[in-house]
Each structure stands twice: as structure tokens, then as C-alpha cells.
Amino acid sequence: MTEASNRDKGTATVPDSKEQMVKGSAWMTAGSIFSRILGAIYIIPWGIWFGSYFFQGNALYGKGYNIYSFFLIAAIAGIPSAIAKQVAHYNTMNEYGVGFRLYKHGFVLAALTGIICAGLLFFGAPLFDGGDPRVIPVLHSLAWAVLIIPIMSLSRGFFQGYQQMAPSAISQFVEQLARVVYMLASAYIIMRVLHGSWITAVSQSTFAACIGAIAGTLTLLWYYLRHKSTFDSLRAGSNNQIVVPAKQLYQEILQQALPFIVLGAGITIFQLIDQYTFFNFMRSTGITSEWQLNDLFAMFSVNANKLIMITVSLSSALAITVVPLLSEAYTRHDKKDISQQLTNSVLLFEFVMIPSALGMAAIAHPLNILFYGTSHKELAAAVLAFSSFVSIMLGLFSVMSAIMQGVSQNKRAVRYFAVGTIVKLLLQWPCIHYLGVFGPLVATTVGFLVVNYLIIRWLNGEFGVDFEGIAKKTNGILSFSLIMCAVAFLMVKVSSWVFKHFAVVDTKVISLFVVTIAVVVAGYLYVYLVLHTRLADTVLGDRTQRLRQLLRIK
Prior knowledge:
It is a single chain. By secondary structure, the protein is mainly α. It has a domain at 16-263. The protein is built from 22 helices and no strands. The chain has helices at 2-5, 17-41, 43-50, 54-76, 79-92, 96-123, 135-161, 166-193, 198-226, 228-236, 246-264, 266-283, 290-331, 335-362, 364-372, 377-406, 410-435, 439-463, 467-501, 508-532, 535-540, 544-550. α2 runs parallel beside α8, α2 (17-41) packs antiparallel against α13 and α2 packs parallel to α14.
């Protein structure tokens, strides 16, 4: 906001995009990570209270949430990201008044799409249950969140257009906190106090999304009221030389928003393909037990997915940050700045994603026991480890699709995603038939690999990607990540041997101890290596010096 307020009328100072990206990513990453961690930690007490129905409840939760996620993305319709991009575009020209009008018209659209999609989800629930009637009450409970979240997300997009990532991050955390508190309270009361139905408990756990949305929206409202005078002064200082009719504003929002639906729902679309094909395709392998199929589905689509999305959220946070920044550079026709931001984006993605994914794979066994217990522990740990590697492709897609949106190549990105989806569909049956529970993960990896390749190839042809510079730093990031991974894996193996030697079986307490030690030691090792070699400086800039002093690393 400071930079924006210091702009002269009619001229926009070009901000240090790398500094902005790192700062914005830090806020979005913090909000996203804390939210994801909260969203994963709740599963420990939640699972204990569900008892023998844990995997079944988690599978039902996942089935409902996958469908809800798609409807939610359709309801949001990409409007928040479109608003962030267009607000940044007009702010660059010192036309803050237009940005406020965009928000007002976007508000009407968000409310309308929320009502339509919530209605479709509620009344159309029997059409989407995939043959499992237990999904219907879960979808009914989730429809209420679809009413509120589009408006909340729109408001986040408005703040992001001003490069204000803190309100989004804080509201995201508050939303998740309120959601988790309600989930745990309702699950405990229904399952342990009232000894009620586990299906009712799952339905209340999903209704928590509505409670969280209300809390998140109120947080954003509080932030706006607190900074209202600053926003008013920016609007008062606008050039006011551009008059955009309401019809054109709606067209701009929709043109930018519609492709965001497909790209924003990319990962969810692949998950829905899994949900509607896995059960039938697995039956062809001879597994017909519904209970067993639900357990396998929970393993890869819900349990592992919940944990890997913590690391994917790192790249999603970066993706959200990069759209308005690229939009500003694209508005200035500054190809050099766009190329530099591409390099920064890829390096920042690799810097956090590669060690996170490899680290999670290394500690998959105790991590899985900590969250999901000892049921199918060997297979579940292998699925989680494999999913950790898959998460790199998912995260890269989040960043690449956001970059394409930032440079107004939405339709092209949708076409590339369509190609990747076709590849996923073609591979789905043979992969599941021959690889079982790992099949959907392999098909997803190849599908997103194709999409990412097509996008990177086009970006290189249009703006030039500094592959040589990226490769040099990537080698360092990968080397340090592999060292960290090896240390974490070794610590897990040694700990396992020690506890078995003393006849101590796998428990959640032991697993928590092993995970904590491995994460602290291996994590510190990675941080030490990137700071000591100054690799972090080339990715994060000068701010690493303070961290180096804090950790007393020369």
C-alpha cells in the first residue's frame, strides 16, 4: 500500500517485483501452511473419536469434499483472481476508483454464483452421490458454505490486487481455526457423548466449512474498516481519466474469470476422475468388498492427499502472489521483467517444494501412523511416500497456470490442461488395473507432467526462460534436499530399530517423537546448507542475512 500511495498521478513506480513476490509469498505461505497444518492435525483426535469407522468416515468426507470443491470453484468462478489481476492492472494506471467499481460488480456476481451453485449442490445432491446415498447429507451440509465463500474469496482478491497479502493469510487462518474447532466439538459430542451415527458426525464436520467461512469473512471486514481511511485516500487521488461502463466491467470480470474455473479446479477435476472411476476399475482386479475399496480410496485420495496438500499449498501461495505482479508487468509490456519473474517464480517454488516433498517421503512411515494409525500401515506409508513425489507436479501446475493467467493466456492454459486431462483419462484404467492403489497417482503425475511441459515450452518461446540460471540453482536445491532427505530417512530407520530393540511397538506418541526429531534435525540441516552456501540469497534476496545472524550461521 505504501508504494501505491507514493505514486505520482498518472505514473506508476515500478516496484521491486522479486521483493514483492517474496514478501507476498511469505504471507500467503504462512497463512496457507498454518491453515493446512490445522486441517491435518485435527485428524488425530477426530480419528480417535470415530474409532473403527475412521477410514470409512474419512472416505465419505473425501467423497463429499471433492464434489463440494468443484462446486465451490464454479461458484467462485475465478472471480477473486480475476479481480486481483484487474485491480492491479488499474492501480498501475492510478485508477483506484475503477478497481473499487470492479469489486462492487464482482460482489454481485459472486453472490449470484454462490446462490446458484449452492442450490445446485443442495437439490442436485442425489445426482452426484456416485451410487453412495450416504454422500447426500454431506453435500447438503456443504451447500451452505458455497453461499458465503465466494464473497469471502472475492474480498481476498481485492486485497491481493493491492499486494496486500496479510488480510488473506490471516482470514484464511481464522477460517480454518473456526472450522476445526467446530469439527472437533461436533465429532466429540455426536460420537462420544451422544453415541450417534458416524454419518451424522461426518455431515457436521463438513458443515464446519460454513462456520469457518463466516469467521473468515468477518476478519476481512474488520481489516477493511481498520484501513478504510487509506483506501479512501487512494481512491480520492485517482486520475479518474478512465470511465469503464458497468457492462464492460462485467465482461472484463467474466472474460478473466471463466478460465480460472477450469484452471483453479484442475487438481479437483483430477480427484473427481479418481473418485468416479476408481471403484469400478478396481473391481476389475478382483477386489469387490465395498469396505476394502473405501479403505484404499481413503488411503490415496483423502489421507495422503490431506498431507501432501500442505506442501502443495506452498506453491499455491506463490501462485496467488504472482498473478497481480505479472499482470502489472504485462500491462507495462515489460518482457524483461516478466522473464525475470518467471525465473524468480520457478526458483522460489523449487526452494520450498522440493525439500518439503522429499522430506515428507522420507518420514512417510511415522507420519502416516501419527495421523492415521496402524491400519494398513505399510501400504498406507508407501502411498503417502509416492504421493509426496506426485505433489511436486501438482504444485508446479499451480504456479504455471497462475503465470499463464498473469500474462493473459487463460484460454491457452485451458487448452493445455484439456490435453493433460485426456492423457489422465487414457491412462486411468491401465494404471489402476496393473498398479492398483498407485494407479491413479501415476496417471495424475503423467497428466500434469504433460500440462506443465506445454506451458513451460510456450513461456520459453514467448518470453524466454533462463534455464541455465535456473538449472545451476536447481542443482544446489536438489543436492541439499537429497542430503536432508537421506538424513531424515536414516533417523527414521535408526529410531525404528531402537524402539523395536526395546520391544516398543509403533504408536502415535512414538511416531510424534520420531517425526519431530527428524523434521527439526533434517530441516535445520537444509536451512544451514542453503544459508551457509549463500544459495538462499539468490532466491530470497537480502532478507536472508537477518536469518543468518539469528541462527549464527557464517
